[in-house]
């Protein structure tokens, strides 16, 4: 078998494996379909925008256009390298059964096949939409010679950007397997990177963040891609720089291939560092939770401690509970941009904290026991310890944070002190009771199988359907308190009734508290009854 045929076989097998993996994950498949539906109008709009841009170029002065083309392709290269590097780190460099593959083929063939896979996936979208946009731009500009120039530039952009992303990802992973400190801080680094990415999205600060990178790359041959793309437009593109872009691509590919071979060899054949965790001594545990163990019964106390230990040892398995925090991004960004905290931010903090507190541990009471479920069900009164313990785990952990954050935001906002006090009571009651609301929903819609929460980590998390129903229930329960403390609705109600804002806020707090307690009691009753009568099939 020739080497080229081996590379195609590796790439084809990797594509098939990824498709089978995606088909087995319904949530991921739905997310991909949703992303495709969302990208369709943007793609059509991009093609039409390219046509309008071509018409603009045809009717404009030529001097600044070549500079714009250079800037656009430098930023395009940064985009390809960034997202290509992320995909390489998270997906491409972690094929299934890596050790088995390395016994069948060399590391050179494997890294080349994985790179070919990524190039095929990127080309499927990049060149199809890019081809349509190139034709539309050329028609708008009235220069058909632009079509081959643009298509060639897009190909060179992928041929250099994807390998560059792989090199960066391999460098990061090599550093991780050889540094004990970086291995310990990997999760923290990824969390901070995700927070920074979403912060850039919501603040629209991509240009400011990428400007230093652009200043470094603009004097390099990456800048020459703009001349190659604009060669047929007659806007002052340099033919020598365009030829240089082709030559640079050839040299870069050779250097990149050699680097990929060496870096993949260092990574895949490395012993790597091993992080060992010391076993906690029983006296340390008892001293840490001494006060809690005196208040709670031993079975309930055991469930609470087990939940907290599980969260500390594998925090990424609780990443689903971070989704509600996304709703806070908009209000926080607005507060940062304006320099003022409005009356709405404390309400968002209240709602988000309540949302997280109930979903953290109580939304999959039976399922998250995993292999220990048969032993748990055979214990004395498992329904009391399981249901109560999971509710208290989230309440004791998140309720104090929710109350403190809500009161702090309320004090910094235009709300009066009595209204802030009412908000604090709402935060305390709702975040403490939300776990009880989630128990009945979670027991009715359990999930027993582990799903992928990252490329290399699987965990048992609540089902998406249970999470959606719980989210609606929490929103309905918290609605009276939110409306009563709203700057607009609360003021309108106070004016209509002729009472103080504090009375309206306290009324909303009482209504939500009564509503939440009733729903929580019913939900816990259902959960305990189902756990008591649960039978393993």
UniProtKB/TrEMBL annotation:
Transmembrane segments: 73-93, 114-139, 145-168, 188-210, 242-261, 320-339, 345-366, 387-413, 419-443, 464-483, 503-527
Key words of the record: Membrane, Transmembrane, Transmembrane helix
Keyword Transmembrane helix: yes
Zinc among keywords: no
Protein name: ABC-2 type transport system permease protein
Biological source species: Halorubrum lacusprofundi (strain ATCC 49239 / DSM 5036 / JCM 8891 / ACAM 34)
């Amino acid at each position: 078998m020739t080497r080229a045929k081996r590379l195609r076989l590796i790439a084809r097998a990797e594509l098939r494996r990824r498709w089978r993996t995606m088909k087995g994950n319904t949530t991921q498949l739905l997310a991909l379909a949703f992303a495709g539906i969302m990208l369709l109008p943007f793609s059509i709009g991009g093609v039409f925008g390219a046509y309008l841009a071509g018409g603009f170029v045809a009717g404009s002065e030529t001097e600044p256009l070549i500079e714009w083309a250079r800037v656009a392709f430098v930023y395009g290269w940064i985009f390809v390298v960034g997202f290509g590097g992320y995909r390489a780190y998270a997906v491409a460099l972690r094929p299934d059964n890596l050790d088995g593959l390395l016994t069948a083929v060399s590391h050179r063939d494997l890294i080349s096949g994985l790179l070919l896979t990524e190039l095929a996936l990127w080309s499927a979208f990049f060149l199809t939409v890019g081809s349509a946009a190139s034709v539309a731009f050329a028609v708008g500009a009235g220069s058909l010679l632009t079509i081959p120039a643009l298509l060639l530039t897009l190909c060179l952009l992928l041929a250099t950007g994807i390998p560059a992303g792989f090199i960066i990802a391999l460098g990061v992973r090599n550093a991780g397997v050889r540094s004990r400190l970086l291995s310990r801080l990997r999760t923290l680094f990824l969390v901070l990177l995700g927070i920074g990415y979403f912060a850039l999205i919501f603040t629209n600060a991509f240009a400011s963040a990428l400007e230093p990178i652009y200043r470094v790359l603009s004097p390099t041959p990456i800048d020459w891609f703009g001349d190659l793309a604009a060669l047929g437009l007659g806007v002052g593109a340099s033919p020598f720089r365009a030829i240089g872009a082709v030559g640079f691509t050839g040299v870069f590919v050779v250097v990149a291939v050699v680097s990929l071979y060496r870096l993949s060899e260092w990574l895949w054949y490395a012993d790597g560092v091993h992080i060992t965790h010391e076993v906690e001594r029983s006296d340390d545990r008892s001293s840490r939770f001494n006060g809690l163990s005196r208040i709670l019964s031993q079975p309930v106390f055991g469930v609470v401690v087990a939940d907290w230990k599980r969260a500390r040892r594998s925090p990424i398995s609780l990443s689903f509970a971070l989704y509600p925090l996304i709703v806070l991004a908009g209000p926080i960004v607005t507060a940062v941009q304006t320099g003022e905290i409005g009356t709405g931010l404390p309400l968002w903090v209240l709602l988000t904290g309540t949302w997280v507190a109930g979903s953290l541990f109580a939304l999959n009471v039976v399922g998250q026991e995993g292999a220990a479920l048969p032993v748990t069900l055979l214990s004395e009164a498992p329904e009391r310890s399981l249901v109560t313990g999971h509710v208290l785990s989230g309440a004791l952990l998140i309720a104090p944070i929710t109350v403190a954050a809500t009161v702090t935001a309320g004090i910094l906002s235009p709300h009066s002190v009595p209204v802030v006090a009412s908000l604090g009571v709402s935060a305390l009651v709702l975040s403490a009771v939300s776990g009880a609301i989630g128990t009945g929903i979670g027991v009715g819609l359990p999930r027993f199988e582990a799903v992928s929460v990252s490329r290399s980590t699987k965990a048992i998390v609540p089902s998406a359907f249970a999470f959606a129903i719980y989210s609606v229930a929490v929103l309905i329960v918290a609605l009276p308190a939110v409306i009563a403390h709203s700057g607009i609705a609360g003021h309108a109600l106070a004016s209509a009734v002729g009472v103080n804002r504090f009375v309206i806020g306290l009324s909303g707090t009482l209504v939500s508290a009564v509503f939440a307690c009733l729903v929580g009691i019913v939900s816990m009753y259902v959960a305990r009854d189902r756990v008591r009568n649960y039978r393993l099939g």
